[in-house]
Amino acid sequence: MEYEFVETDSVRISALLDKHAHGASDTTEIWARSWSDADYGSLADPARLEFDFLFGVELQEDFTAAGTVAFEESNVRATATRPFAATPEAAWVLREALLRSVSDHMVRAHVADLILSGRRDASPAHAEATAEHYRTCARDVALEPGRRAISLARANTIVRSRRMVTEASVREQALELAREMLTLGHSHAVLTLLALLSVPARDGSTTSSERLEVRDCLRGIAATAPEFIDEIVRLLLLAADSDEDQTAAARLHVSWYLDSARGESNGIRKVYFGYEAMQLAERYGQFDLRDDAAVFLQAAGEDVELQTFEHDLPVSRNHLRRHLRKYRHARDWRHAYRVFLAGPAPTGDHAKNVVQAENGRQGLLSLVSNISLGPLNLPTRTGTSVEEEQLHRLEGSNIGS
């Protein structure tokens, strides 16, 4: 049954949203809280479905870009999703009515973004109003630090993508909020803010002192929250003003992994960190650190704690004779080599191996390291997926290696 807008729906849904928004960490929590509310259950089915569709999208930080936060389909499996293009007119009218009636600023920002991203109203005035709703969320100390940061990052994404003059003031607010959260130890939220500050403003108003402060903040987080090292270095490289800044970031990245390897007592983790350090050093062109990592891996020796399992596999003598017979009658080694090349692959048929690997896929392979070590205790290959590793082991067993 298709939804038809009635004014009472907006009144009831607005009250429901404002009721459950207080103390919620994000919009998904508002939705989850509403499920057990009798007012939610009393909504007509079409209205209740439209309520659910409000939460089919959420803020998603793009960790491959500089501070970009998208408003896209929710990753929560239970959410009801629908393309913006398939949204009926009555649903848009409901959302516009909700924007006028709800009071909670997190809900207002969410509904306004629905209207903006769905291009129901993509005017500069509405885009600026939507960004302001998000900036209000960032000022709310009652919200969780992560929500405040991602709200401001979304505001920045909106104004930056439209080249609005308010970008400078959004960045100024982001820098002030980053300073506040850094003193409180909210490293994850600070990284969200520093991501948008790691690239210059589109109007060229970014000063060298601001970029220097961003780099100093990132290095400070590296010292107190090293688990974010990969993200920190990515942002340091974006915020670099010179080749020296880039080199310093690269060496920080490699040194962290190498120091972690040296401080590890577990052999497998020691090899993992050392191998990561060697790969990063190679990628960055820091060959002295690459050599240090290689020497460390070679010196790891028995600390790897690998175990050797032996298993006897009886093979019939007649089987070996049958296999060798075709070579025994060859005229010389060249003839024997041609016989070998003309025969089937020792690893078996590749297509059949792929099927067998798929059918016999072992779940434990996804839980253990896929790094193969050579005779010098240096990694020789790394499986990129469970399927590749399973196929490699299968074909290796076919040739007896």
Describe the 3D structure.
This protein has 401 residues and is mainly alpha-helical. Among the domains are: 314-343, no CATH class; 351-401, no CATH class. The protein is built from 19 helices and four strands. It has helices at 7-21, 27-35, 38-41, 45-53, 89-101, 105-117, 124-139, 145-161, 167-184, 187-197, 208-224, 229-238, 243-262, 267-284, 287-300, 317-328, 333-342, 350-359, 386-398, and strands at 57-61, 69-73, 371-373, 379-382. The protein has a two-stranded antiparallel sheet. Strands 3-4 form a two-stranded antiparallel sheet. A hairpin with a 5-residue loop joins β3 and β4 (379-382). The protein starts with 6 loop residues before the first helix and ends with a helix.
Can you give the mean pLDDT?
A: 86
Order of strands across the main sheet = 1-2
- SSE pattern: HHHHEEHHHHHHHHHHHHHHEEH
Oligomeric state of this protein: single chain
Radius of gyration: 30 Å
Number of helices: 19
Number-wise, the strands total 4
Taken from the alpha-carbon principal axes, the silhouette is extended
Derived from helix and strand composition plus strand pairing, the structural class reads mainly alpha
Q: Please summarize the sheet with the most strands.
A: 2 strands, antiparallel
Strand portion: under 5%
Distance between the termini: 64 Å
Helix percent reads 55-70%
Low-confidence stretches: none
